[in-house]
Amino acid sequence: SRANADFIRAGKVAGGKPPAGFVAGPPDAEGNPTFIPKLNDEQAKATGFANRIQSANTKIDRFENSLLDPANKVAAGVPLVGNYAVSGGFQQADQAVRDFINAQLRRESGAVIADSEFDNAYRQYIPQPGDRPEVLRQEREARALAFRNMRTSSGPGASQIEAAPSDDVPDWAK
Question: Which of 5, 98, 103, 111 has most Cβ atoms within 10 angstroms of its Cβ?
Fold first, then answer.
């Protein structure tokens, strides 16, 4: 960042103290010290939640067809054997769904997430077998909005939100 470059050029690195409003970050590729914006508690939490939402949403998009397969949905509900009967893509999507919803709801509730809240969020954000194309688009838009809102809430922490690998970046995150 410009603050890092200015700080290093000014020769203040020797003192090891970051500029006002910054804290020490990991060294860059050349071993130079870096500095990241200092966050308050809410910004730090939002930054972590935004990272989780972005990562989870990339996986949900990648494995959407597994979530839309009625056979996976039925098999997942079979006690004891359900996880053995679903596809690997469904397992990955299901884990990402839980991570997405937990990150979104934890920020909203800050406490234990009730089953009814989780179920409602599942229907609000996650593709279901039988969803029409326009509903799938709305669900994608709702997930993208959740990410953008969380990123905005992170304030200066937005610069610390990890980019998804370039080949995995869906349109909503660009």
Answer: 103
Q: Residue-wise over 5-41: b if at least 16 C-beta within 10 A, else e? A: eebeeeeeeeeeebeeebeeeeeeeeeebbbbbebee
Cβ contacts of residue 38 below 8 Å, gap of 6+? 21, 22, 23, 156
Distance CA 14, CA 24 (A): 13
Q: Which pLDDT tens digit goes with each residue over 90-139?
A: 999 999 999 999 999 987 766 788 899 999 999 999 999 999 999 999 99
Query: Please, is 85 exposed, middle or buried when counting C-beta atoms within 10 Å of its C-beta (0-12, 13-18, 19+)?
Result: middle
Token duo for residue 5: 């470059």
> Max CA-CA distance within the chain?
64
Q: Which residues contact 13 (CB under 8 A, 6 or more apart)?
A: 7, 32, 33
pTM above 0.70, yes or no: yes
Closest CA to 129 of 90, 172, 82, 99: 90
pLDDT per residue over 82-104, tens digit each?
889 999 999 999 999 999 999 99
Report yes or no: 45 and 104 within 8 Å, Cβ to Cβ. no
